[in-house]
Amino acid sequence: xxxxxxxFTFLALIIFxxxxxSANVDTVLTRSNAMKKDIKAAIVKPxxxxxxxxxxxxxxxxxxxxxxxxxxNATPDKGAVKQLSDRHNIIVVCPDGGVTSWYFDSPQDPTYxxxxxxxxxxxxxxxxxxSTIKDRTGRAITGLSMGGxxxxxxxxxxxxxxxxxxxxxxxxxxxxxxxxxxxxxRLGKYSEYxxx
Length: 196
Prior knowledge:
Helices cover 33% and strands 18% of the residues. The chain is of the alpha/beta class. The chain has a single domain, classed as 3-Layer(aba) Sandwich (Rossmann fold), CATH 3.40.50. Strands 1-2-4-3-5-6 form a six-stranded mixed sheet. Strand 1 (24-32) and strand 2 (37-45) form a beta hairpin. It is globular. 39% of the residues are buried.
């Protein structure tokens, strides 16, 4: 009898621990008119999300070679982003930034306009489809590696959109690597366009 009681207690603890963070994830297709294509994004809504309340939004950018679902699937704790959403009662937006966009509007390749997409088109989509704080006081942006570059680059350039920005292991000084990670494809050759 005691063994059965311990088993059910243990089972209840597992269920409670796994259900303690129950944020919901929407995978959406967003339109970029600037790039003339649809782009996926994962939207993590905190447990108890309600259209009656306004939520702050964290834009969380992936690294080079990644995709929109990396933050949900490739982290050691696959529930980390959901926990972040629940713990801080925020919406987390994980957009697809292309394999090596660097979150620039490329002066070399008009099919890469990820600055316009993330700052204008995506923010507009999120604010019109979710219950958000619709100004810079309710928005932050950060990311990993290439996404860390994007977090600072976009945050500094668009302080009217984002009230906070950050970088995790960000590739923030790209000058020593002009031939790596498709930088020349996005910005042109460093020898020809050092100002870029």
